[in-house]
Write a structure and sequence with these properties.
Chain lengths: 389, 183
């Protein structure tokens, strides 16, 4: 039996406890594939997600943006119907490097103080080999700090919202929130709905913008009126890398909210605040080639005989902004040129900017002014709602 | 349900027709407020100031033609809300009413002191409004300040309520300009 000093020399000067841990890690590595919980899972974030609306039956092995890592997928508790969906645990090999996801440090660790791999999606095969989407939501080493694992929740909903006049979709996790009331609130003369909801989403530059007063429709794809919600508690700090949102039930607004249906009449999208001042949101622009984007300072309203609205054009090539090119500005209402009713000012502005004022009559209130910028084969347009003072 | 163009034009005409005081007065007040640099400055909306936004952007943001501030206030903001009302007609002549124009000034307590004057913002805004409206004939007859009361809203806002009153005609004309009384 070697002496303690010899033992220490053999194990590089570690304490006995550290040596036991090192030996345990070696055993874990050696027996990793013996465990039925072991499987290859695929990790990625929102920007590397080619199927943002798909939750189940994915094929990550065919997707080069998703990174395979061997994990153990551990059930650590039992589900009861009365409570929220349980989490599962994810464990890495002791030797697993965090650098395997090259963008994690910049986008999660440095930016939000997150710990790898919190905030990432993981496609994990079930017992039948079908890959389903999960979200890593927190560390789970409260029971055993020696063998760190992480909490996983199954992504069960695709959240849709409109922000800055653009449509956004992202997979996330619905969580229940007890509101301890009947579901309605009666206040002398009016009865209104009163319920609460929670969700978890990865924290990204997109979900950072989810804040108070942001509305979403969260419901099943029903043909009757869906339930609308408004954010009342945004929490970006409890689990770094995760955006936790609490919602209070709001009223469905048939003038602004939009239930999108396909040709067969089935619901394919539910958008809160889709129509703002009568203007529908834009789809995400494709920055892959040379494009230009027209934007406006402030809201998308222009008042008759009101102040000037400043517009600007930015050119992009392969996602990066590039040099401005001269072009033509045109103004339309219902397809008719209304340049006569536009006062343009460009003095004192950058060459990609223009300020405009609408000097038409009150007959234009409620109509949409389309401003179009064209430079060669590249063009973009923006809609402004014409209002009165 | 769709309206005809004629019906839409009739709805728009309320903005200008005499005796449709609620709408017409508010149009006049909106224009006066957004054209007053001191009011725009005192409302102190940093986001609009940084964007160099035009003063009409303050409408429906800081200047509200109703006394209701919605939705959730998650940042420091100041408001001028205004309403019109009347409850009494002249005792011996129901053709004359006592029309009121009420301003509600709400300043967030975190932005309560104006830096160039070290004065409470809601008092300053009230002073400018009194300057603009007290004794003015912009609504046809002379406006008089009848009440100037401070209060607190939600423990976050210092509030001042100004009530101006005038004696004016009690909806004498119909919407097409024809005389209602005696028709």
């Amino acid at each position: 039996m070697p002496s303690f000093e010899t033992f220490k020399k053999l194990h590089g000067g570690l304490t006995v406890g550290q040596t036991h841990k090192a030996d345990s890690d070696m055993v874990m590595e050696a027996t990793w594939d013996n465990d039925i919980d072991t499987r290859v899972a695929y990790f990625y974030d929102f920007d590397h997600d080619n199927h943002i609306t798909q939750l189940d039956d994915l094929h990550p092995e065919q997707d080069e943006k998703k990174i395979p890592i061997s994990i153990k997928f551990i059930a650590h508790t039992k589900q009861t119907l009365a409570k929220d969906t349980i989490s599962y645990h994810l464990q890495f090999r002791p030797s697993q490097s965090e650098d395997v996801i090259p963008y994690y440090k910049e986008k999660f660790e440095d930016r939000y103080g997150a710990t790898f791999p919190i905030g990432l999606y993981v496609d994990i095969p079930d017992s039948k080999g079908r890959y389903n989407r999960w979200l890593v939501v927190s560390k789970a080493d409260y029971n055993d700090v020696q063998f760190s694992d992480f909490e996983l929740l199954r992504c069960d909903y695709v959240f849709q919202w409109v922000i800055d006049n653009k449509k956004m979709q992202m997979a996330g996790v619905l969580r229940s929130q007890n509101s301890y009331n009947s579901g309605v609130w009666v206040d002398y003369k009016i009865e209104s709905p009163e319920d609460q909801q929670k969700c978890l989403l990865p924290l990204t530059r997109e979900t950072e913008k989810l804040f108070y007063n942001q509305r979403m429709i969260i419901d099943n794809k029903v043909l009757t009126e869906p339930r609308a919600w408004v954010i009342t508690k945004p929490n970006r700090i409890a689990n770094k890398g995760i955006c936790g949102l609490t919602f209070a039930q709001d009223v469905f607004d048939p003038h602004r909210d939009y239930v999108e249906k396909d040709a067969d009449g089935n619901v394919i999208g539910m958008w809160a605040d889709y129509y703002v001042d009568g203007i529908a949101p834009e789809d995400q622009p494709d920055y892959s080639d040379v494009t230009c984007e027209l934007s406006v300072v402030g809201n998308k309203r222009i008042k008759i005989d009101g102040g000037y609205k400043r517009l600007s054009v930015t050119f992009y090539k392969n996602g990066e902004s590039t040099e401005f090119k001269e072009g033509n500005w045109n103004y339309y209402v219902d397809g008719t040129d209304v340049s006569l009713f536009i006062e343009e000012v460009s003095d004192g502005l950058e060459k990609n900017e223009r300020s405009i004022k609408f000097i038409g009559t009150d007959a234009y209130i409620g109509k949409i002014l389309t401003v179009k910028f064209t430079s060669g084969t590249v063009s973009d347009s923006i809609e402004l709602s014409i209002t009165g003072l | 349900m769709e309206l005809t163009e004629k019906e839409i034009a009739e709805l728009r005409a309320y903005r200008n027709i005499p005796d449709e005081d609620d709408i017409r007065y508010k149009q006049v007040i909106k224009e006066m407020l957004i054209n007053n640099n001191k009011i725009i400055y005192l409302l102190h909306n940093e986001e609009l100031e940084k964007a160099d936004a035009d003063s009409d952007e303050y409408l429906d943001t800081n200047i509200l033609p109703y006394y209701m501030v919605n939705p959730t206030q998650s940042e420091v903001k100041n408001f001028i809300c205004f309403e019109t009302s009347f409850e009494e007609v002249s005792r011996y002549n129901s053709v004359i009413k006592n029309q009121q124009v009420i301003f509600y000034i709400l300043c967030h307590q975190k932005d309560i002191t104006e830096k160039y004057t070290s004065t409470a913002r809601h008092d300053l805004i009230a002073a400018v409004l009194i300057d603009m409206f007290q004794g003015s004939n912009i609504f046809g007859t002379q406006l008089k300040l009848m009440s100037d009361k401070p209060s607190v809203v939600d423990t976050d806002y210092a509030c001042r309520t100004l009530v101006f009153e005038q004696q004016t005609l009690n909806s004498l004309y119909g919407k097409q300009g024809g005389l209602r009384i005696g028709n």
